[in-house]
């Protein structure tokens, strides 16, 4: 297909996630980065544009200027979607203005600063008729898709218990709070009401809901902040799913020695599964009445369960490839939208996941400061459709 044209807001020099987005977008050769507003500092934005080989005329001083100028270009030249890779507090306004200007949006998570903004964004998105996707990266792993299919097809039976944990140690040293990545995540003005739960806990919640094809209906939470920090860096959440399963979510950024330890176990009546992001090509399937199995990515069994891989068995694919799977799916949707035939059945996280993520974060923060044991997670499913088409 003709390459889909992308713009980017954020992701300037020394930005971590912006570089990851660009690598993911480039991997399958379906996307071309044609413009950007990479930094609030025009000099840094121009520096990034030069490094990326982008026409200096299409490096903009602000995202507002970019949307205005790009909208005036011929349809076959202007960007078709924008990737938003800024701190959380900018997500809503950038996405809102992009949608209103007629551009599709792919945004880093969480979608907004709070649930109110997410609800407003859902309304803007619906009225715009544009596509919206959210980069919950871990749903792009082949064996995560396989795990979901095992649950959906009934091979585990009724789900009884879910245990998901996401442990990191990069914020364990309290003296490092002034670093660029830590500073904005620990600042309520830029991160919102949560650090740990908004940064990684919401990934764990999304992974559990995705694999189980179910949603968290109620929760009880205990989150905490180390030292003089204003926002949480550790927490535990007890879960009740709408389908009846019980669960536990643990998220920490002060777990000394941990790197990016995301792990999920789903226990059903007939079988259980176990997947870890640090060993992503393997999915352990445990049966009650026969030997355990280890399913491997790119094998015929995994392929039959819907896993998307680029290399033969034994050639590990990881974080960048999972990220690229989301970009690849979104590029295909944008291409289909050119012909007025978007794919409405995609598993790509969209506005519904954006709403559910913000509802989860806010409910966790509220529950942790309350003496009440259980708190209902707001039902936001009636406000949108599913996936990247939502």
UniProtKB/TrEMBL annotation:
| Keyword terms | Signal
Residues of the GFO/IDH/MocA-like oxidoreductase domain = 145-273
Which Pfam families does UniProt cross-reference here? GFO_IDH_MocA, GFO_IDH_MocA_C3
Q: Which GO terms describe its molecular function?
A: nucleotide binding
Q: Which SUPFAM superfamilies match?
A: Glyceraldehyde-3-phosphate dehydrogenase-like, C-terminal domain (SSF55347), NAD(P)-binding Rossmann-fold domains (SSF51735)
Residue ranges constituting the Gfo/Idh/MocA-like oxidoreductase N-terminal domain according to the UniProt record:
5-134
Which superkingdom is the protein from?
Answer: Bacteria
Q: Key word Signal present in the record? A: yes
Query: Could you tell me which Gene3D superfamilies the record lists for this protein?
Result: Dihydrodipicolinate Reductase, domain 2, NAD(P)-binding Rossmann-like Domain
Name of the protein this chain belongs to: Oxidoreductase
């Amino acid at each position: 297909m003709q390459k889909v044209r992308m713009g980017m807001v954020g992701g300037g020099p020394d930005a971590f996630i912006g570089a990851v987005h660009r690598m993911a977008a480039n991997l399958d050769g379906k996307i071309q980065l044609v413009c950007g507003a990479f930094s609030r500092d025009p000099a840094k934005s121009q520096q990034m544009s030069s490094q990326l080989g982008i026409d200096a005329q299409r490096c903009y001083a602000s995202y507002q200027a970019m949307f205005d100028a790009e909208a005036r270009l011929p349809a076959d030249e202007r960007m078709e979607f924008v990737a938003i890779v800024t701190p959380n507090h900018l997500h809503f306004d950038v996405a809102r203005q992009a949608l209103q200007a007629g551009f599709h949006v792919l945004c880093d998570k969480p979608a907004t600063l709070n649930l109110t903004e997410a609800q407003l964004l859902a309304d803007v998105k619906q009225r715009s008729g544009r596509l919206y996707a959210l980069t919950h990266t871990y749903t792009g792993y082949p064996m995560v898709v396989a795990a979901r299919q095992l649950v959906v097809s009934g091979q585990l039976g009724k789900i009884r218990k879910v245990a998901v944990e996401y442990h990191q140690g990069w914020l364990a040293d309290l003296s490092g709070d002034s670093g660029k990545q830590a500073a904005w995540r620990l600042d309520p003005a830029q991160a919102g009401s949560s650090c740990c739960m908004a940064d990684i806990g919401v990934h764990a919640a999304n992974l559990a809901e995705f694999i189980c094809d179910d949603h968290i209906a109620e929760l009880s939470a205990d989150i905490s902040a180390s030292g003089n920090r204003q926002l949480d860096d550790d927490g535990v959440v007890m879960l009740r799913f709408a389908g009846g399963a019980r669960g536990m979510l643990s998220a920490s950024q002060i777990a000394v020695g941990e790197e990016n330890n995301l792990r999920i176990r789903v226990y059903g009546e007939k079988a259980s599964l176990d997947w870890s992001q640090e060993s992503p090509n393997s999915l352990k399937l445990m049966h009650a009445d026969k030997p355990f199995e280890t399913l491997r990515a790119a094998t015929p069994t995994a392929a039959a369960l819907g896993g998307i891989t680029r290399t033969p068995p034994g050639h590990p694919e990881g974080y960048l490839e999972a990220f690229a799977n989301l970009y690849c799916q979104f590029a295909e949707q944008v291409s289909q939208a050119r012909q007025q035939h978007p794919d409405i059945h995609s598993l790509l996280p969209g506005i519904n996941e954006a709403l559910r993520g913000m509802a989860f974060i806010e409910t966790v923060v509220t529950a942790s400061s309350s003496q009440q044991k259980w708190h209902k997670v707001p039902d936001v499913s009636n406000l949108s459709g599913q996936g990247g088409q939502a």
